[in-house]
Amino acid sequence: MIDHVDVLIVGGGPVGATLALALKASGLQVMVLEARHDFSRKPDPRTLALSYGSKLILERMGIWSALPQPTSIETIHISHEGGLGRSVLSAEQEGIPALGYVVNYAALDQALHEALLQSNVHYLTGAQVTQTRATQSYAVADFDFQGASHQVTARLLALADGGRNQSGVSGAERHVRDYRQTAVVAQVKTELPHKQVAYERFTPDGPVALLPSGDGFALVWTATPEAAEAILQLDDTAFMHRLHAHFGDRLGGFVQAGHRASFPLSLSYTKPVTGPRKVALGNAAQMLHPVAGQGFNLGLRDAWELATEILHVSPSNIGSAEMLAHYSSKRRMDTAGGILFTDALVRVFSNDNPLLHHSRGAALIGLDLLPPLKSLVARKMIFGARG
Predict the structure, then answer these.
(1) CA distance 359 to 344
(2) In which pathway does it act (predicted)?
């Protein structure tokens, strides 16, 4: 087994796999260590709202064509419960085919997995990383694979494992804010067709998002932990009735509900994201609230920008302090913008303070009446801070 590479990636999920595939034609030695060993297709209700910018990245790598039937989002309708304010974002107004696309998480994961298997990347599944460390000259990872212990060194170690590796970036701190919210996710169908429209409705307990998915919607219903637990216990009829009461009549009634799952919501981010010979990206760098669908798209841009940076330096400078400082500088505005934007939405719109109620409505009305501002918001959501 090879014991030294140019780039070592810990984590072969969508972000780590994207980084590896973006480097596959570079001539560099790239290794991916992925803890999972079973990639058989299993039912998975999770969906991803990919921005148009993320679609372009996946297209460049030849992954987009392997995804089964992504559903386009051509319009986003934003409103808040109990108020008149609303705003509508439109792909046509931005001069692009779609604002985003809804894809199944498992389908994307599988497509990336198969692409890695067919590439020249050293791709090890079932590899359990036990420790990472770094010097000024190289990084080291110890891992267990096929019943034996191994060690590999690298010019650069990229942590894309969702933050599970405890020996992360040297000197970095993980900042966490618990929103005391839980997301309930499910596939649902409504009486009226979605017509490629996504809905984001803000309520005091948290946003309710309906994303067009196939002939129905992917639901992300944010609630307090106690309310979410009660929602999970409802039978399908009671669940759809309660969702209808919460969301309103815009799509008629809800006529079908699939399996429900839930997960807690918080904001967490690593600072700094780079250290000697190491860099954190994706969820290992930042985990955002799902409002506005920014988290995964931000992680994908991390991977693409890091690959671009690696390709722009000589092999001997990969992982150098200069290269990592340049990458960190390029990503700083996009990352900070994503964190501040989603955190502000949660704090302002998921709030029962009566003083904020009319301000929320006025903000949505103002956004709709100011096309340049609306376009700016849309393009930042689609392409990040550099949009």
Answers:
(1) 13
(2) Cofactor biosynthesis; ubiquinone biosynthesis
